[in-house]
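Posting for a labmate who doesn't have an account.
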Amino acid sequence: MTATALLPDALSAKPLVSAPARDEKRAGSSRLPMLDALRGIASLAVCWFHMTNGAQPGFLRSSGSKGWMGVEMFFVISGFIIPYSMFRAGYRLSDFGRFVLKRLIRLDPPYIASLALVLLLDWLSTLSPLYRGAPFHVSMPQLLLHFGYLNVFFGYPWLNLVYWTLAIELQFYLLAALVFPLVASDKLRVWVPAFAILAASAWLTPETQYIFVYVHLFLLGMAAFKFRVGQLGVVAYVAISLAITVALSLVLGRVVAGLGLATALTIAFINVRVPILSGIGVISYSLYLVHVPIGGRVVNLGARFVHSSVAHLALSLVATAVSLAAAWLLYALIERPAQRWSSRLRFRSNRGSLSPITTS
């Protein structure tokens, strides 16, 4: 008797194409509407966390105290969207170089622009007579390491505190490009061991600058990918997601595990458009990049003049609005063109495949 025969019917039986997958094929869609809404929620959560975590203890600070978990939402979304897009684009291992190049073309221009903005604002801040911090100084190694997302390997601090998550994302892109043929296989003897090995890697190191600590979040997204393309039935998908969530709770705690599962289930089962959140989701990467250097400065400057919780709330809202405006400019001027440049570079082996969805 084979190992496959010992598995429950929900796993061993060839699953029917899921309803979401059928809907996508019929519609020929190039974008999943709920993903943009989730991106909007995640980016706003992180932004609000940074706009309020300097407030006095109370309602305002509490309202953003869990916003940092938007990062974990982004990891689940990436765990889904990257393999899903690769699947639709007909990715093969021979496309590794093109895949990495596409991601860098897509993400680096706004990232480098935000890096230049951070340097400019840091320098300008030191020219103010109100400035009381250390003189402006950036070492050349610290700066150059940003261009390869390598600060984590050499102990140099990031110029923008959110950049550490981009390094984790890049690690995932490289990992996904290598293991995609395994996790996207419809053969149990291939993808089940691949999932198991990835899940076990979470215990390789407790260092949070490496992907391993967060690998279960990405796996939740990968499981949703297999469901959305019809490789898993509902029962099997839910069972696998619950198993990943239990493992995740052992590494990052029950709250993060619950949020990760909720994000993954939303991706798997919900197909609705939320216009306001979707609009923010479209510029979510730009918002993520600029909200600290732009919105954070609005809060720091305004904090000198506000002396009540209501005034601080108004200040946080203004800072968020200014961040959104700056994000829209970055998106319109740099990120959107970068998306077009990236989309023009296609995999060699994508003939006859479905059109890739828009990713970020």
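Reply:
Got it, the structure tokens are right above this. The mean pLDDT is 88.
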